[in-house]
## 1
Amino acid sequence: MARQGLKAPTGRIRLGMVGGGEGAFIGGVHRMAARLDDRYEFVAGALSSTPEKAKRSGEALGLKPERSYDDFAAMAKREARLSNGIEAVSIVTPNHVHAAAAMAFLKAGIHVICDKPLTTTLKDALRLKKLADESGLVFMVTHNYSGYPMVRQARAMVAAGEIGEVRVVQVEYAQDWLTEKLEDSGQKQADWRVDPARSGAGGCVGDIGTHAHHLAGFVTGLGVAELCAELTTFVPGRRLDDNVQILLRYENGARGMLWASQVAPGNENALKLRVYGSKGGLEWRQEHPNQLVFTPLGKPVQTLSRGMGYVDGAASRVTRIPSGHPEGYLEAFATLYSEAAEAIEAARSGGKPDKAVMFPGVDDGVAGVAFIEAAVKSSAKGAAWVKLGGG
Amino acid sequence: MARQGLKAPTGRIRLGMVGGGEGAFIGGVHRMAARLDDRYEFVAGALSSTPEKAKRSGEALGLKPERSYDDFAAMAKREARLSNGIEAVSIVTPNHVHAAAAMAFLKAGIHVICDKPLTTTLKDALRLKKLADESGLVFMVTHNYSGYPMVRQARAMVAAGEIGEVRVVQVEYAQDWLTEKLEDSGQKQADWRVDPARSGAGGCVGDIGTHAHHLAGFVTGLGVAELCAELTTFVPGRRLDDNVQILLRYENGARGMLWASQVAPGNENALKLRVYGSKGGLEWRQEHPNQLVFTPLGKPVQTLSRGMGYVDGAASRVTRIPSGHPEGYLEAFATLYSEAAEAIEAARSGGKPDKAVMFPGVDDGVAGVAFIEAAVKSSAKGAAWVKLGGG
Amino acid sequence: MARQGLKAPTGRIRLGMVGGGEGAFIGGVHRMAARLDDRYEFVAGALSSTPEKAKRSGEALGLKPERSYDDFAAMAKREARLSNGIEAVSIVTPNHVHAAAAMAFLKAGIHVICDKPLTTTLKDALRLKKLADESGLVFMVTHNYSGYPMVRQARAMVAAGEIGEVRVVQVEYAQDWLTEKLEDSGQKQADWRVDPARSGAGGCVGDIGTHAHHLAGFVTGLGVAELCAELTTFVPGRRLDDNVQILLRYENGARGMLWASQVAPGNENALKLRVYGSKGGLEWRQEHPNQLVFTPLGKPVQTLSRGMGYVDGAASRVTRIPSGHPEGYLEAFATLYSEAAEAIEAARSGGKPDKAVMFPGVDDGVAGVAFIEAAVKSSAKGAAWVKLGGG
Amino acid sequence: MARQGLKAPTGRIRLGMVGGGEGAFIGGVHRMAARLDDRYEFVAGALSSTPEKAKRSGEALGLKPERSYDDFAAMAKREARLSNGIEAVSIVTPNHVHAAAAMAFLKAGIHVICDKPLTTTLKDALRLKKLADESGLVFMVTHNYSGYPMVRQARAMVAAGEIGEVRVVQVEYAQDWLTEKLEDSGQKQADWRVDPARSGAGGCVGDIGTHAHHLAGFVTGLGVAELCAELTTFVPGRRLDDNVQILLRYENGARGMLWASQVAPGNENALKLRVYGSKGGLEWRQEHPNQLVFTPLGKPVQTLSRGMGYVDGAASRVTRIPSGHPEGYLEAFATLYSEAAEAIEAARSGGKPDKAVMFPGVDDGVAGVAFIEAAVKSSAKGAAWVKLGGG
């Protein structure tokens, strides 16, 4: 349990944030995640593009006035010149801002931690990837579910051949918070997510479908070759899809189904992955993330538990507390921050992080956007088969 | 709990069986189901088309030698002439025999209980339906999962509007027994199920996909208008599909996904239905059939339990024992037999059974075959959208 | 799956019943259980001690008038003389009748299947045991939970040393149906169970505590040496205990806790056993009886499922249908009836049943009554430690 | 979700720590908990009583050398004199050090956060209570499970009468890590916990039995009047109890059972509480802490989920992220730290925290020690009934 212990937090990484001011949800999550393992120090922000709100938010979070900006471009420029300027930035705005903000900080030589989906168009995503690749800077996209230890356990088991050749992938991410027309109430989270101008062409498919898509790819190591997507809008007057049903053809011949919904009453954040191979299966649920179910063919069902002695090193190195004491969403998120910290610290001295370090990078971000574009295109054609573009 | 009590079993229904001899599985289930509520007396059979086997099986089951046949046509003819001849027959053969056998008994004026899928072609199904409709005889197709009390509870709740307008249907039936090439071992169940000549054009889709399709329709009251089906054969050398992934468009605009698989390790008979509407959701799992999960939007998740005072009359009338004492697969199967008994007993006196009596009929059988044909056709076109034929 | 198949039911056992008329619950269960595997024929009864009710019940169940009695003593005498008289009798009356009825039939040379608790006093139980032992007749006490396949699996695993030396037993049986004063409503089941004259000195402890006690003993093979029992009556005005909490000291030094309650809202028939040894643990729940959880120390939790290839022969020989198709309470009850049938059939020819045949006998019945007496005595002393009498 | 947001962390509380150096477990937990909500700054420590180890641990954690002590008494004295000295101290040593350390810091005017059990004797606990009460300082005992939102939800529901009058309490805390003689391996956690000199007279009963005892009291609001405890040592050669079975009599007449075990294979940190009243029941499990099961008599079982709109304010004010995104052990621990922070911040200005603030205090610590002493005494008398001392 490498994270719990006495690892020196020598020289916390100076971190800034774009977005995440008053009324935001995910900004607070990023800050708690950055704090948990004590590898970051939050020192600057452009927390809102509304000056007054940016100011209030900065004060509330204890930023020094001169490090609280209302313009990410200005922030990138000025921080790059400060001797104690930020080394990394978290971009936690609505989707349409990601591309420009990420490019500004990359150009300023600052490592980037960016929320998903990476951008609102594949074209932007590919431009951003080019810049990120050339910069040599650390670039993390917060497909945060890959920070859960038992997700890493699943990935290690698939890679080790414990379920044989992967044949079937069943992945889903169901929520219910948009079952009614919440956006009409002015609720901030709902408001921008259903607005194509800020969210991009995908609604539910971009917001949570991408998480399901990434999780399946992360665990199986397989890419999607083609898909057939039925995107539906059930709530009258809503401008983007709120229910997503997709058939997937993986590169190795495996077949998959992906369901994402924000109109499924009783589902909170019901992300669930099942993978079946020629020798066994695996099942993982985000709402009870400390367990992984392994079903070797013809043998008793096994429930593996985070923190136990038998778990793979890839899972145990990102675990903080003993088995039976649940770790949750914030811990998984914090793990990604600590993985990025490993890479950033290595970069300080011109090196590379340990091979075991693992986090979603710009390529994962591009793949997510390619997935959204293909799904939207397929659905527009009446749910026809479409090949995935991108990388 | 109407079934447990003192209801007079006056005049058990004389029952025959076609198929279900040595090595068969489902025949024994039908016999136990017929026996549980004491409404039937098993008196004749053409238990195998192999004379020696038919004879041995008849003896083993206590049939009188003269009531043990090796030819269903001869059986239908002779039983029709006997003063104590069978009143009903159960047809539990491989699929390709269903149509001819059912027609023979209908023509002989004998009520029919037929396993699913009804026939191997839609054309046959429609011919059979015509005959059944004209005959006025009772015709039950054993989509047995509709015999579970909590499935009936779900149907009643949807009908009562408790989940609002149905939007999303997620149904699946996963097994693992064909993960390896069991048919090569000579195992009888596997053998005929993967043989197009005996099973029909659908493998997994016909064997268990039809159960999933029927269950969703039974609970929601909705028909499928179009589907897009990806049928896959994962086990090398197998001649029929062993994994089925389908997008569904329901007549009311609801959207569905159906997954059926016989190559998903760790799944025994994992039939599971989830239905989401504008006001709530329902979830039911065959492997734990005494519970029904109801998720009214924004309220605590409710788990309803068979036998409790709050369950709908439609569920409590087909329940035998108190809540917490699990009823299982045989009880649900027995319920269908008892429902058919109600209809057969009513027919004895030229009447109709009580309105509460409910069992899948020939129309359900036709719908199942139409579903198979559409799925096979869609898949043959590379998983294109196909409208459902039939009724 | 020996029970499903073609086993010849040649010569069904002629069965009678004492009790189980109108308004009774358990009589119907016994009849369905006797019917499921087709080893019995129900031909005579003293279904009630009220003549009119006995008559009506007999008619409703299709008994011939001359085989429908209102007095078990007369029934025993007459049936013993008939050439086609009953070979076995099921005694399903309130507890206070068990002893006299069982003795009457034993004396008449008729095999006995008796509900639990065996008698209302240990003295009676020991007298009955003496008579049963001397008679050489089959005597089964329906501690029915021992008929569940996965309970037998648990027993086999403990016996095989898979959990090492047993150290800790946690067993409980919780219900909620007596949370309010149901007996005041005239409900028949509640009425006699809370009446010391008919139920005996124990209320909840006798009604369901004995099931928990037997289950733990059946699985572990261990006897209770001493106990310390707190019997409580929570519902004002009730005459017998409705909540039972007991510390147990087993003969081998293991320690146990037993909780039985009929006033625990949300519990239907929540019988649950957990056993922990030096190498592993086992957990079984009656409400989901097809699974058994096995926890080998330091390894993933295993969930074993009835019907799978890896289950012990002791479990698979009493299984009817494939895994994933749940068997329930009636099937387990039916298994006891079929086990008794094996013994009765063997007795017909002067032999013994196969060694694998297993059912609770008169010794188990005596142990149950000794348990009740010790618990009542302990509680009367303010929950002091008391040694178990009996055997 | 008050904790997630923009609450100003103005002036973090300066925190010190006694214990928690190399090889310790709970020290790291306290530090993460203190960090999560950004209310504390960790600035001083006596992390070990071994000078070299204290030094190394302090360096590893980034303490300034002059704030890293090897003697808590010296630390208390010096920190009290510093202008930027610590305002609060966390005492996370083995049990035998708690009393002296807590007294030293109280005398130095420093707020105390102390691990449980409070002390190794009731006499010490009462002396400490006296000092704490007189000091007016904040004193928190980390019965950390009371920090879980759904535990607070349960408490609020009991207080609101939703389950009626409490009748039955079933509480348990099972682990398996001491099933074998781990202490012989030199494992630090095991080593001191089974040593009476460092752990006190109770082993398992003190280590985890106290958590179960506190949880039940916290939720029900009831105190234990008498108990009858069977403490057992199953592992040969172990010096303290490793399995605990207790009957409880609550002050209001409710009856309880408490099971704690460290030798129950398959149990990780299986703390579970069930409470039944005259109108309903509640069930909560630490291993899946975001759900609370509520069983109103005669109605469907309800599963309440942390973060949903219907939860009580007492639960939602200590929640950080939306429902369905699990919070775990560290979050609950962090909640206690933030609750203490509220009290410490209020004390800075001579005030009291908001009434909603809630954390276990010195009285809870005394009650825990009284519970241990009574259990040890009862067991020594052969499991006789003993009244609880203390307050």
## 2
Amino acid sequence: MTKSRIEPGGTIGILGGGQLGRMLAMAAAKFGYRCHIFCPDERSPAFHVADRVTVAEYTNEEALLAFARSVDVATYEFENIPAETAKLVASETYLRPGVRALEVTQDRLHEKDFLNKSGVHTAPYKAFQTAEEFEAAFAVIGRPAVAKTRRFGYDGKGQYMVKSRRDAEAVLAVTKGAPAILEGFVKFDREISVIVARSPSGDVAAFPVSENIHTNHILDTTTIPADISDTIEAKAKVLATRAANALEYVGVMAVEMFVNDGSGDIVVNEIAPRVHNSGHWTIEGAATSQFEQHIRAICDLPLGETNALGKIVMKNLLGKDILGAEKYLEDPKAHYHHYGKQDPREGRKMGHVTWVNTEE
Amino acid sequence: MTKSRIEPGGTIGILGGGQLGRMLAMAAAKFGYRCHIFCPDERSPAFHVADRVTVAEYTNEEALLAFARSVDVATYEFENIPAETAKLVASETYLRPGVRALEVTQDRLHEKDFLNKSGVHTAPYKAFQTAEEFEAAFAVIGRPAVAKTRRFGYDGKGQYMVKSRRDAEAVLAVTKGAPAILEGFVKFDREISVIVARSPSGDVAAFPVSENIHTNHILDTTTIPADISDTIEAKAKVLATRAANALEYVGVMAVEMFVNDGSGDIVVNEIAPRVHNSGHWTIEGAATSQFEQHIRAICDLPLGETNALGKIVMKNLLGKDILGAEKYLEDPKAHYHHYGKQDPREGRKMGHVTWVNTEE
């Protein structure tokens, strides 16, 4: 492991076989990289576009070592792979982003502590685990507040909206006694995210800020440009860059933020140490896609341009929404994406559509 | 085989595993299609992005039948697969484009006869096989002229520039006694090509005309728009559309033409019943890529928009040209493509670069 650059034509390992891994593999293929994808689920959509696959659990050390030895660099498409898995892979090959980014972002408490120490503000929060600790936290944070498990939450899972200190029982039914945090509710007008890339040598490039609308805790639409001032846009990019530098991050990460239009305040909600749903618009809507940018960063190639090519809207297709392809395929400004998943169960991310309005 | 449409998520078979099959598979994946690629060469670059591969000869009937039965529609990335292979596949699944397109375009004599009968003019030509027939053909065609084998020629292989009737011996050394044609040389100022798509229901969409520069019979650069008048641009598209309709073609095909600026004459040089090197610019330079358009056509989805997004230049990277990636990756207007081939031998198509100048 003397040279940091992985030349085009090399092999990239991806932990995780969902749509993010799939789109990473497709971007890698543009540069001639072969992808080896490791995922426990044999029906992983990323397998359809991979050169090589390993179907094994993330705890299978033998399979992980063989995987790590077969690639020139490894990355991951989701932040909930066990830290031990990451460490094992990192012992045999480059793991980008590294173990630290995973450890920090896998735990909401560590993440918030880290961000605030790095000068990136979050909503107020306090850790708890037991009913007594919850009540003590509630006394500090007040209401409204959200209880969240520290680990393994996504799309609103493991969360509970707290209204009273008497909610302790209901909260613990959701957290199941696992370490959790109580987070103060901040008043905000809009949710935004910044997709930022950082190279091994410390070059940083942020995409234009996107504005996100969630429905039932799942991303519904992303719009670019966000309806924010230039000052807020610049400030959001500074915060994302600060977080990436503080983590000595390598690759693409997403920073979700809340914006208060009146005060101009921005608080960071959370970091995803990976390509992100709110960056899918970049495939057709930016000079470089977030997937290509991640490949460039982890292979130590020059980062690409990040400018948007117009006004962009990205909409997720959940469950049976995927079946109505016709109207998108007939729309000259629409780019339809289908992730190749067979079962369109309710709420499942099956695909997305991006509209690029270059004339507006 | 009652429904003509293959819905997103279905399976597409591709005969041939080169860079064209690779880019077809990547386009198919955007719509959730799985690709099964059939190719005798186990090092095929298209295999890197395929869901399933079959390594077998094109004469292996058992393998071909199994392949055909495993897919919802089959297509091919090159025109020299045996007609018997195509017929066998077509007996079990949709083959698009069909057997007729292959039969016509595999043989230069049939192709030229067909085109001229369809109102699409070519240079003058005459068939020959023996030395006597060559001399008789030369007496009609005159000089300069080019002798070409009727079948299996590409990138200038199987061709001989004729200067005299006494060249008979040299010509037969190249044609090796195989059926051939002697083609008259037409005076032209530029080479252009039209990439045109036709759907099963007869919808036709042509991309903007591209201007091509060949070096040593291999495409070097493609530029859009071509330096031709609107009248010539329109006429070229009419000719390509006429050829596609006459063939009852389904899919994307390329029509190469010679243009005489002074007279405004266009003659068709040849047809490629497949996606084409002179259409690679469409990946980033057009609203829909030729690869996505081919997938749309063979799956009977609506054809996509074909407008160019600016002034475009595509350059092939041959042999060791592929190794200088850095300068392309640093150029904000350049899109670098590497086909994943390991051996950069001289003249081999290893990748390409497309520059999209949206501001000019």
## 3
Amino acid sequence: MKALIISGHNFEDSELLVPYYRFLEEGIEVQIASSQAGVMRGKHGYEVEAMALAAVDGKEYDLMILPGGKAPAVLRRDEVVLNLVRYFVTAGKTVAAICHGPLILVAAGVLAKKTATCHCAVAKELQRAGAHYLDQSVVVDGNLITARMPSDLPGFMREIIRRCQG
Amino acid sequence: MKALIISGHNFEDSELLVPYYRFLEEGIEVQIASSQAGVMRGKHGYEVEAMALAAVDGKEYDLMILPGGKAPAVLRRDEVVLNLVRYFVTAGKTVAAICHGPLILVAAGVLAKKTATCHCAVAKELQRAGAHYLDQSVVVDGNLITARMPSDLPGFMREIIRRCQG
């Protein structure tokens, strides 16, 4: 089992750190990747090292996490990210996005007729993408898991880990 | 089951956030407390709300977490913290400290003849307190669980959660 966390500068620190360490606790290998290799800094200041997405082989991974913060607004314009998301969704691999992370799902065009949630500030973008938006802590629809904000992390991680163990 | 996280300004962000959300994922109630009530800021910049330790009733809690960062160097001079640590240890409740967190155990005088670990920078303080120091990811000795640094969080949380489930 191997997880891929995709984010960039100004990620929401808790939404990257909590899944990262949770996977390792569970014995799941985890890799952080971004548009470019190097150190990226969370919006609160935490720094983590990322590998370049161009060097990521999607086939090696079983699930993808898209944390929130300000990073998704930039990542959604990166075709490498969007193609990887489309590949994961098509291959039936789990894609879990929280807060502003679902904006990347919108840009990848994978939300039509799907039930999902996100940060309330971008709920309209989900709806315009054809998603059935729910203001609910965690929403699971097929291989998509979405949540709204850091305080939803406990339920978000519960669903993700359940998926990994199932 | 109820957990108490004790820290203060300049806590190591990951060592507070990861246990906090992990407890909630597990359905364990968790409270953050500090010498004074209010917002405290991690050394990387994350802000969390703490209640005053003076208002904490130790009897309500089953385990205590002492994250690292720069907070323990201040907390170890707070007699309210030290008395609470002594009460937990005497009552056989789990006390888990990581990084510079074990400095609080040193000050509370609960490490004599105990096997423990901590950040390498303060290993000598543990030894002077009569502890048998091990440079090992996670050390469990009775109801004490200690670890060295953020990268030890996976094993640290594994031991803590196992204790909660046991």
## 4
Amino acid sequence: MIHVAVMGHGTVGSGVVEIIDKNKKEVDAASKDEVCVKYILDLRDFPGDPHEDLLIKDYKIIVDDPEVDIVVEALGGIDLAYKYTKEALLNGKSVVTSNKAVVAEHGVELLKIAKEKNCSYLFEASVGGGIPILRPLNTSFRAERIEGITGILNGTTNFMLTKMDEEGCDYDDVLKEAQSKGYAEKNPEADVCGYDACRKIAILTSLSMGKTVHYQNITTEGITNINKVDFEYAKKMGASVKLLGLSRNLDGECMALVAPFMVSDKSPLYAVRGVFNAVMVRGNMLGDTLFYGQGAGKLATASAIVSDIVDCSINKGKTIECTWKDEEAVMADDSKKVFNYFIRVKKEAFDNLVKSVGIKEKVVVESVSDEIGFVSDRISEDKFLKAKEICSNSIINYIRILDM
Amino acid sequence: MIHVAVMGHGTVGSGVVEIIDKNKKEVDAASKDEVCVKYILDLRDFPGDPHEDLLIKDYKIIVDDPEVDIVVEALGGIDLAYKYTKEALLNGKSVVTSNKAVVAEHGVELLKIAKEKNCSYLFEASVGGGIPILRPLNTSFRAERIEGITGILNGTTNFMLTKMDEEGCDYDDVLKEAQSKGYAEKNPEADVCGYDACRKIAILTSLSMGKTVHYQNITTEGITNINKVDFEYAKKMGASVKLLGLSRNLDGECMALVAPFMVSDKSPLYAVRGVFNAVMVRGNMLGDTLFYGQGAGKLATASAIVSDIVDCSINKGKTIECTWKDEEAVMADDSKKVFNYFIRVKKEAFDNLVKSVGIKEKVVVESVSDEIGFVSDRISEDKFLKAKEICSNSIINYIRILDM
């Protein structure tokens, strides 16, 4: 018998219990043992809940119970989640989570403890919800040199940008709709400022590079400056605006970025619409592979957690190794980040700006008259930032162009 | 040291040797041992080949050499490939292949021998080329009840259908182009008649159901009847015509089919164009996940083989288990296969046909005058086949409509 303790009886935690119940046959067969939930930790009361008898309020009961094999951390937040995870691992219990904030902040330390204690720390559900992406990075791509990862990693912003694209809505209206549908929080910062996507690309890149990439070192721009005129330009370019998390392995140095990008309709990422997520992986031999699916949602996220529970069950007493090692990745500086930039600039500053950033083509939208939209030459980020500083009052907006 | 023997020095086999050379650092690190190619089996001579010293002509050298750990079967064909694979497994050597014909025909027997001999039989490269799809089915989806698989599994026909869609070409012209580009064989039967896709969906379904699905039991229709008028209708329906391999788990019974389908532009499969492949997996908890990438090509296929070599290396002396078991899947009969059919019928037979199959909507294309195109009610395949038999001289073409 494999004993599981689920910390947190909210959306994700209760989804995990539901799947272990409903797919009992599949879960037990895959685990080669009976998987049973022994405790559910939550400070709240759930009178009448079918699992009321399993509810406890003190996490110590879990970490001190030698019978507990696997702990699901579905608490959210950072400090307590981190503390409980660490204590569970130190007591030799495998921990499984969807908590990207804890993984991005403390992942490498927790992986190390798991290894010392012959247990595992798994977090498939922390990136891309139900999309199996971390396990393939850890297994199927091991023989590849991964050159880059490009992902639509946040369903809320992708829902908003898709609406703006398809219906010509403006930012404030789609944000309101996303909030009313429950996709966006009342304080939508984590989504719209790119913080959520930033944690996820940090985790993906740490796995793909085999080194530690700190999310704090990733340039992160959100979608708050994107408006419907940008989408008119995008349409003229045969493109759409998407919030991407991307990273590139530049001869061993790591280039990583979260920002809105112009994505051409030739890219498979263009077709990723609404709340869906997708991750594209480029291997040096394999070329591009895309993983697409539900990036959030109770059962999709819980399903990824249960697949990790199964892995821990099969590998009881052993550590499932992770490619992510305790060595700092060298981050590429801005001179090595090279893009074409789509830039909207006031007419009077156009000539001057083009002198600094070059021009590949103009993009003409009939509805605007006092500005010029154009695509710059392929230039480095530092060159662009310098030009931007000089012309700052004249640049209306800019969006990098995805070239992979 | 892990000793590998590569049987076949053609496109795929030489690609495997190339990746083991070029990605030596990654391959050895992932394998936790040095991986080295000891033999290359081919009846041909390759004077001047950098690996000329490894070439042998007698497979017995490989199966009798106790030092050989892993055999790559990249011979193609069935009989010899099966014989050599079996002997290698019986001698305790793991075998890795991209040979879908052998896997579909003899997979379950070879998996059984591998298990008895504590070695592995892996075939990630046999479906979807470089797309990691079999390993996720074997691992990430273990806790799911897989309800269905829908795949664009043949790059040649997808290239042809994409051309017909985008450029309004007719079948014979795109076939010639596919042949001149080397995508289609001189005898294109295996691709255009759906036989290749049929083997692949048989393998995918055997894994997803955990039972044996014989490819001979899968209804298989190719694309030879598809012409440019069908694409005019498809456009009116906001769809495109795709050759799909699909299977559904109907309360434990297996429904499987290879045929051209109308795929709506709302489906992520619609955006899969050219030689690319994609596989959509529906789990009962997870919902839909899509895997997309290069379905063929030297290095993509070889990369999938090398990822299997790595797996065999790490699991030396053990069997990597496969969900596919030696139990026959019960195949659903035609009364349980239910679709909407798009049907083109001669005007005079329309009323009569509608009496049998019902009508959801007419589809009007200006360029045709002596026929009527319409979508039937959702009806069972046996009902449709009966109606088709009665009206056979009047039905110009029919294409099932994808509803998942």
